[in-house]
Amino acid sequence: MGRKRLSISLAIVLSISFSANAQKKQPDSLKNLSLDEISIFSKYFKRYKSSQLSDMLRLTTPLLKLPQNIQILSSEILRDQGVYNLNESVTRNVSGTLREELHNGISPDIYSRGGYISPQRNGVDMRPLGKGPLADDVAIIENVEFLKGPSNFMHAMSDPSGSYNIVTKKPTGRTRQTADILLGSFNMLRAAVDLDGQLDKSNKLQYRFNVMGMGAKGFLKHDRSSKFLFAPSLKYKFNENTSLTGEYIFQHLNYKMLSEAQSSPYGYGTLPRDFTLTDPGTRPFIGKDHNAFLTFQHKFKQDWQVTAKLAYVNSGYDGSLFWVYGANPTDKDILDRNLIYDSNKYNVFSTQAYLNGAFKTGNIGHQFIAGIDVNRKSSRSWDTWATATTIYPLSISNPVYSDVILNNGIGGNFESENNVSATANKIHRTLNYISLYAMDEISLLDEKLLISLGLRLTASDGKTNDYGQQSQSKDWALTPRLGINYSLSNSSSLYFLYDQTFLPQAGISADGKMLKPLKGKSYEVGAKKDWANGGWNTTLSLYNIYRNRLITADPTSNLLYQTGESQSKGIEFDLKGRIAKGANVIFNYAYTDSKIIKDDLHPANIGMATPNRVKHIQNTWVNYLLPIEKLEGFTVSLGYQLLMGRTERIPNTTPDKLNDIFRLDTGLGWSNQKYNINLLVNNVLNSKIYSTAWRNKTGDMYYWVQQAPVNARLSFSVNL
Fold first, then answer.
1. CA dihedral over 695, 701, 702, 704, signed as positive or negative
2. For tag attachment on the chain, is the N or C end more exposed, with fewer CB atoms within 10 Å?
3. What's the Cα-to-Cα distance from 113 to each of 147, 551, 571, rounded to whole Å?
4. CA 59 to mean position of chain CA atoms
5. pTM of the predicted model as reported, rounded to 2 decimal places
6. In order of start, what are the domains of the chain with their CATH numbers?
7. Which residues have C-beta within 8 Å of that of residue 306, sequence separation ≥ 6?
């Protein structure tokens, strides 16, 4: 039977492969039925709700039966919301997550459950030893998987708050070509092409090719940025059970500002929205990111598969920015700017191999996974954050900008002003680890009860040279995992999780020794349910996390000490999917209480909130297909973000109250099987919003990251 395309009002998209037996009549069963391929499309369906992890995260158990709160975001959600990289409003789709927005040009820097969650790319640990990695672009994103809490089945090297994994676009074996154009406020222009197909008639050699280019000016004065991305990938299927996939991703960024940070001695949010510290003549930041992935998969017997991976990441940036360290002692209207040079080169080499399988011992079923991870990270930085001394004054009330000449008119280069190559301006950190893991998921009571028992052994070796201070640390740890999931029905379950983490730290403490690994343990209980035949689902979770060897800063010197412990506890609720015909919804709420509970050296810190804590976060996003025949294909979107009970980026014993955040967004779209047009208006109320706020150690200067005023984006995509 040839390929058929049917457009029907179903809330599913299916790609069903049948063999040549289709000609045989099977009136009572479809068991042996086989067709060539049928693609069923629905104008009511969007991929807001997912039921299965990617194979990058190793587990084959459906999400409903996993004893953990895991949220998956499809690229379709990101497209509907008009975002173009992970540094935008991606966290609005997952309960309790938020970004520290200080490094908008570089790092995602996502926080959840009172901690910094670790980034992964295709299952490879990317947690930085400094800043990074460069933010993933939607042009290469297939899905984003948020794993709440520890995830020992992936790696132990994370904060107990969790991690997220970027699943990049790979060959699918289907022929698809898509082109996208995005126009937006602040002179934004972006174009992308996604090509997917086969290079031979037998469909053994498959390809995927993504390319993207964009340019924009920011809402702050003198801001501008451009980006280019190139991402080819090939997959060769030796047979139905064996394949080899190779991927390469290159990103090049040119951006004027590291972030939209502002500073003032008068308090948070006291500057005009477009005020900038940046001069038009400062050197822009240049970032380059090379990624190479090689994945071999082989299925043997019926239920067993071995996977081996190699990954190499080479990422870096350098540039200059103005920064203000404190108030002018004689005139508060004058900002005493220092010109800072900042550079970082970051490398990751990773090898992974793991085995998945299923077997039975009597009436007891087993889903087994075992593997080994080897990872080497290296980070080299050159910066003048601690040594820049030349002052470039700027008036707050009457700013006058000009092309900057180094040394206040004398001229020269960064070396002549800041001595960039001096020991006092260099950091070199390395971290090597090897980790062995095994987990058995035991099914009892006709698979209603699943018990997960896991254990990971990790050994690490870290070296650091921070501005001439050198130290080395070798550590190892056993981290167990216990998960219990009980199915109340085919569509609902209860779960319990106990998990531990082991996280080596980068840097040197005030006593001259390398920071010791942070250790954490997490307790979580929850309930999951699929509604309306799987059209939408909900997850409710309660957690309690303990961290020891917490790193805190001395409030008078900013030196690092490792004397604290913290506790994070909270409640999270996530709803995602099609709740009614044409209505696709994301709704989440989180209450987070995360604070320092022990600090022998600085007892005044006890009770202080952990960095960037927000007590209440509530997000809603609705995309609705209008049920009007004359307006067939038209959708309306409405969403908001609400953050209440915010605390500062650098906690202190006399915290300032931060304004709540409420941002309202709306949109209008139209689509059919070939075209998609989408108009988004963000911050419709034109609210003046700031995030990621903190004060300097003397308390005379306030810092915050300003967010954009009302702005619009118009996207157009076509299936070629």
1. negative
2. C
3. 11, 17, 10
4. 20
5. 0.90
6. 1-42 (no CATH), 176-719 (2.40.170.20)
7. 297, 298, 300, 353, 354, 355, 356
